Amino acid sequence: MGGFFTPATLEQVRAASDIVEIIGGYIPLKRNGANFVALCPFHREKTPSFNVSANKQFFHCYGCHKGGDVFTFVKEYENIDFPDAVRRLAERAHIVLETENQPGASESRHVKDRLLALHEQITQRWQAALAAGEAGQLARDYLAKRGVSDEAVKLFRLGCAPEAWDDTVNWAKSKDYEMSLVEQAGLVVRKDGSDHYYDRFRGRLIFPICDEQGRVIGFSGRVLSGDEKTAKYVNSPETPIFTKGKVMFGLDKSKRALLDTHRAVICEGQLDLIACFMGGVNNIVAPQGTALTADHTRILKRYVEEVVLCFDSDNAGQSAAVRSLDILLASGLAIRVAGVPAPHDPDSFIKDFGSKAFAQLIENAVGFFDYYLDRLCKLHDSTTDRGRRNIVQEMSEALHKAGNEVLVDTYAQKTALRLGVAVEAMRKEFRKPSRAKTVATEDAPELAESTEEPAQRPTQHEWWLLRALLESDDHVAWVAAHLDMAWLPTAGVREIVSQRLALGESWTGVAAWLSQPENSRWQSLITEILTDSRPIKEAAVLVQGSPARDGIVKILRDRDIERRLAELNRRLSAPDILQTASDELLREMQQLRQLKKQPLHAKSQDS
Q1: Residue-level pLDDT at 440
Q2: Distance between CA 300 and CA 335 in Å, rounded?
Q3: H or E element at residue 79
Q4: Is-above-0.70 flag for pTM?
Q5: What is the DSSP letter of 113?
């Protein structure tokens, strides 16, 4: 889990990343006593059960039992691996990471950093080209014609690549960038069979593509001239910092709105998105130069529960909406479709009817299967046998993918009503196995039943002992001298306490201990304990006891004695027990009763 970072580096980043500030940047937190609370971002809930402890720098959800430190939160929330979570927090804190020996890791990080710097600098250059001068006039005229405001140009950092074959080549050389790096960034292309390069983006309006942190990682360039032989859009190729199937345009700006509304509006293009965003529909994203992918839906699921597809009204846009079904169903996201009236796309609709009308269009979006039934009835002639057969077959195939019997029955009724046939006949058709489902079932491997048993919960006294040992070093030496591990009834607690006592003064803290892979399985339990806001009064008395009150360790000893007495009594009641064995059991029981009356001694003095 610690990757290849040194423990000192991890601790430096952790110390510089206040967990309340970090989590508060993702979700709204409210103070609740010593802790902060929120609706959990990892599962659906109506009452806040997500707790963040400022003092202990841990979070824990009492609903889904997910918990951990600041690294764990960023890793889980952003759906990235542990090293990337460390890097994000380090970059935020302006900490230069030092790593242990990891072949190629340092070089790979250096290349990514250089690519990010290169993208940022060329973005600024293209912004300047758009803002002033003859090179940007055509782009400025185009933006004015499309109604893109100066505010939108600045917010989305739009730019213009001059109409030249070597503008970027010459600029990169003047900045001492190696041409191999500029080629790797996808900004220039090497001529076949030579060492000469030319610009990839020429005479185009430039849309910078950003990652979730707002860093420029790629570009999309729209042609400005009327040459029909030229591709309308040119996009960056995939690079070490840009994978188009994992990037959604606008997400860096729409994250907060997605969290607030629990809904993502998905449109097709950059200009559509910009028009919607500037019109007040801020919870909007667009796939970047590709169809919707499973990675896209995994990213969206971190933010929302529902998506509304808002593609162009032409056939290509509507077909794209249908192709999204499988991916969206697999994600578990609710799906609706907003029908933009022909011949509009979202951008032109907002221009003609205004942002309020578009917002209402989104609110009135219909469920996917209502939309799909309507589309099938438009594509196929429902007055012919062939048309009805196609509608029923395609509707049935789509519904079977949802795997929901209620949906199947609901749309059996709706389809029957639409086609003017008996509902029972439609139900019978819809009950037939889907061809796609049959193939998938035949190919699917058998799943073995899980044999893993749920972790046993600690007793109340074990809970308080763990909390005392994990929150402070004050009781470790005393507990080590007086506690017998056999007194702890829960196996997991025995393991944690044993490790804590064995480490003694070499203990470097809960966070560092949990970051070790072999200890990560205790993360949920320990974060739950450490976000417990109930105050501990007189911790030493609680653990060690006083003349007027038994401490936890003595209570644990006495409970263990009671368990042993109960077992001896069970053996004593056996009908075929011998007298000698009976006498031995009675003597042992008497010794245990005497021991229970004695005060707690160090282990070397116990009998």
Answers
A1: 38
A2: 12
A3: none
A4: no
A5: H
**Whole-number CA gyration radius for the chain:** 32
**Each residue's pLDDT tens digit, 235-259:** 999 999 998 888 999 999 998 888 8
d(CA 266, CA 217): 21
Tens-place pLDDT, residues 421-468: 898 998 888 887 755 444 333 433 343 333 334 456 888 888 889 888
Q: What are phi and psi of 212, to 5 degrees?
A: -65, -20
Query: Rounded to whole angstroms, how far apart are CA atoms 73 and 176?
Result: 39
Note the Cα 216 to chain centre separation in Å: 21
CA dist 565 → 173, 494, 530 (Å)? 85, 21, 34
* pLDDT of res. 290: 67
**Cβ 324 vs Cβ 291: under 8 Å:** yes
Sheet containing 67-68, strands listed edge to edge, beginning at the edge strand earlier in sequence:
30-32, 35-38, 50-53, 58-61, 67-68
Question: Angle at the Cα of 389 (from 386 to 391), degrees rounded to 5?
Answer: 110
The answer to whether the CB of 465 falls within 8 A of the CB of 543 is yes
Backbone angles phi, psi at 65, to 5 degrees: 65, 20
Helix, coil or strand: residue 165: coil
What are the percentages of helix, strand and coil residues in the chain, rounded to 5? 55, 10, 35
Residue 29: predicted pLDDT:
92
More confident residue, 500 or 316: 500
- Give me the helix-helix angle, 368-379 and 405-419, nearest 10°: 30
Does 73 or 579 have the greater pLDDT score? Answer: 73
Q: How big is the CA angle at 474 (ends 473 and 477), to the nearest 5 degrees?
A: 85
DSSP for 528-555, written as a single string: HHHT-----SSHHHHHH-BTTB--HHHH
Q: What is the DSSP string of 428-439?
A: HHHHSPPHHHHH
**Distance of CA 47 to CAs 3, 24, 37, 61, 590, Å?**
36, 18, 10, 11, 53
* Res 524 pLDDT > 90: no
Asked if 249 and 273 count as a contact pair (C-beta separation under 8 A), the reply is yes
**pLDDT score of 123:** 96
Comparing 106-110, 184-188, 258-262, which segment has the lowest mean pLDDT? 106-110
